[in-house]
Amino acid sequence: xxxxxxxxxxxxxxxxxxxxxxxxxxxxxxxxxxxxxxxxxxxxxxxxxxxxxxxxxxxxxxxxxxxxxxxxxxxxxxxxxxxxxxxxxxxxxxxxxxxxxxxxxxxxxxxxxxxxxxxxxxxxxxxxxxxxxxxxxxxxxxxxxxxxxxxxxxxxxxxxxxxxxxxxxxxxxxxxxxxxxxxxxxxxxxxxxxxxxxxxxxxxxxxxxxxxxxxx
Amino acid sequence: xxxxxxxxxxxxxxxxxxxxxxxxxxxxxxxxxxxxxxxxxxxxxxxxxxxxxxxxxxxxxxxxxxxxxxxxxxxxxxxxxxxxxxxxxxxxxxxxxxxxxxxxxxxxxxxxxxxxxxxxxxxxxxxxxxxxxxxxxxxxxxxxxxxxxxxxxxxxxxxxxxxxxxxxxxxxxxxxxxxxxxxxxxxxxxxxxxxxxxxxxxxxxxxxxxxxxxxxxxxxxxxxxxxxxxxxxxxxxxxxxxxxxxxxxxxxxxxxxxxxxxxxxxxxxxxxxxxxxxxxxxxxxxxxxxxxxxxxxxxxxxxxxxxxxxxxxxxxxxxxxxxxxxxxxxxxxxxxxxxxxxxxxxxxxxxxxxxxxxxxxxxxxxxxxxxxxxxxxxxxxxxxxxxxxxxxxxxxxxxxxxxxxxxxxxxxxxxxxxxxxxxxxxxxxxxxxxxxxxxxxxxxxxxxxxxxxxxxxxxxxxxxxxxxxxxxxxxxxxxxxxxxxxxxxxxxxxxxxxxxxxxxxxxxxxxxxxxxxxxxxxxxxxxxxxxxxxxxxxxxxxxxxx
Lengths: 216, 546
Prior knowledge:
The complex is a heterodimer.
Chain A: E1 4-13, E2 19-29, E3 34-38, H1 45-53, E4 60-65, E5 68-69, H2 75-78, E6 80-83, H3 95-105, H4 110-123, H5 139-151, E7 157-161, H6 169-186, E8 189-194, H7 197-203, E9 206-211, E10 214-215
Parallel strand pairs in A: 3-8, 3-9, 6-7, 7-8
Antiparallel strand pairs in A: 1-2, 1-4, 4-5, 9-10
Chain B: H1 8-39, H2 49-56, H3 59-92, H4 98-110, H5 113-124, H6 139-163, H7 167-175, H8 180-207, H9 211-218, H10 225-234, H11 239-262, H12 280-309, E1 310-311, E2 314-315, H13 318-322, H14 337-367, H15 371-381, H16 388-398, E3 402-403, E4 406-407, H17 414-436, H18 440-448, H19 453-482, H20 487-490, H21 498-506, H22 511-543
Antiparallel strand pairs in B: 1-2, 3-4
C-alpha cells in the first residue's frame, strides 16, 4: 500500500461539552495524486488535515504512510508539508531564508540549499526576491513563498489548508492553475482543503465532500 | 502543536527557578512582615494582637491612614480631570505636534519618583519658581505631583480605547437625531467606561504607593502609611510598629488591586486609524484641554533644571561640578556623589541580570495558558501587589543576617536583590504578551518543515522575542536605577544609591546640599530617560512586524 491511508480518524477538542470535529473519516491518497476536501467552514476539514499533518492530536483512528503507522511520529519527523491559509511566513527571515528553513532542518549543506532556493523561486515565479523581507510582499507573493517553503524539503505529502482563500478572486483563479501545475511538475502527493468548489475542481484530481465531521 | 517545554516534568523543573527566587527573596520576607505585624517580635509565641491594635489606634497611625486614602482619592480624581481631556485631544485628532505631545505625556511615567519629588520640591519650596504660593510641605503639592505622574496612565489606557473606538458609532447616533453632546454621553462615554474605570483603579494603586513623593514633599508635616513605616524603622527603631503598618499597607494595595482587577478594561481591538485633522473650533478645544497638562508637566522640570544651575551668586555649573568633588560639609554623605552613581549602576546591573535570568524563563513557562501557568503568573506578579516599601522592610527583617551559610548582614547584595524583586513582575508583564503574540501556527509551520521543539524555540521563538527581551531588560534596568521604596530600607548609609543620596541631600538645609540634589536629579533623569527611550525604540522597531 503506497501513499496516505487514513482509517476511522476522530478529532475531539476538549471543552464542556467536548467538540467532535472529525467523526470517523477514512480515505486514501495514492502517490502523486491530489485529493480535495470540500465543505463549508466548521465541517471539520481543517481539523482532519491538521491531524494528518500531526499539529493536532487525533483522538482515535490511524494515519499511515506507505503502511507505516504515524500515530507516534511527531510533526517534525513526518515529512508532511503544510501551507497555511495566511502563509505563516517567519517574519524575522528573508524570503530566501524562509524557503531554506526546511532544508536547513534536514541538514542540507549551504551550497545545495542556495541552489534549491533558486530553483523554487523560479518555480513560483519570484526570481530576484530572495533577499527581500517577507513583510514587504503582497498577499499573492506571500502565498507563493509559503508554497515554495513547503515544497523545498521535498515532503512526501503536501497539505494545503485554504491556500488561496486570503487572496482576491482574480488572483485566486490564476494561482489555482499555477499551483496545480507546480504540484504536477513536482510529482507531489497533495491534500487540499477548500470551501470553493471551482478551486477544488481545478487543483485536485479527485474531490470528496465533507459535512459535520464526516465524508458525505 | 505542543510548544516548548514539551514535557510536564521539564516545566516543573524550570518553574523551580522563579519559585526558589521569589520564595527566598519575597515570600519569606513579606511573610515575615505579616506574621510579625500580627503576632509581634517573637512570632508564634502566644500572639500579640493587642500590641497590633495599640499601634493601629495611635493617632499618628490614624492620621497616616486617612492621609493615604485622601491622597489616593485626590490624586486619582485630579489625574482623571486632566487626563481625560488630554486623552480626547491626543487620540481623536491628528495635528502637528501631537506626536511630541504624546511623548511629553509619557515622560513622567519613566522618571524615577525621587526625581519627580525633587522637581516639585524645586518648584514649590520657598526659593522656588512658585515658592510664593506657599505650597511647600503641603498636601496640594503632593497631589499635583501624583497627578503629574499619573496623567500618562489615563492617556495611555483611555486614549488607547478611544483610538480604537470607531467614530462611526457616534455618527450613527447623530443620524438618529442626537446632538454632539448627547452622542458623547449616550454612545462614546459608555463605550469608554471600562477603560476609564480601569485607568482610575491603576492610578489609585500607584497613588497609594507613592512613598518617595510623600517623604520628600511632605517633609515633617504630611505622612502616609508608607512614610510612617520608614520613620518607625529609621527614627524610632520600632520594627513592630513598622510591621503592623506594613500589614495595613498590604491591605490597602490588595483593595486597590481588587478594584483594578474588577475594572480591567477589555483589550481594545487592533488599532484602527480613526484620528482626523481637527476643525477650527475643535482646535480651541484641544488647546484648552492640553494647556493645564502642559503646564503641569513642564514647570517642575524647568524649575528643577533652573535650581540645579542656580548658585549663591547667579547661575553656573557649580552644583554639577560638586557631584565630582567631596560632599559638602553639612551633608550626611561620606563620599563624593559620583560614588553613589557608580553604586547605582552596579546594583542596577546585578539586579537586572537576576530579574532577566528569572524573567525570561518565567515568561516562556507562563506564555501558554494553563492552570499551572496562571498560578505561576500570579506568584510572579505578587510583588506588584505589595508596595516596594514592604518588600524593602521584609528584606531588611529577614535577609539582614546569615542566610544558608552566607552572611548577608549589611551586605551590598540586599540592594540588588530587593530591586530585582521589584523589577521582576514588570519584566514578566512586558515579556508575556510578546510571547503570546507569536501565532502558534508559526511554530506548527516550523515543525512541518522538520524543526524539533528545541529548534522551534531557538529558531522561531528566540528571534521573535529578541527585541521584546532587550526592551524589557532595559526597562528593568531603568526601574532598578530609579528604585527608591525598597532601596531606602536596605542601602547602607555609607554606600547610598543615587536616589537615596538625593533624598538625603534634599532633607538637609543649605543651597549646596539642595543644589547638588537637584543636579543629581537631572543626571538621574537623563540616565533613566535615555535607557527608557532605548527600550521603547527596541520594542517598536522589530516588534511592530509581528
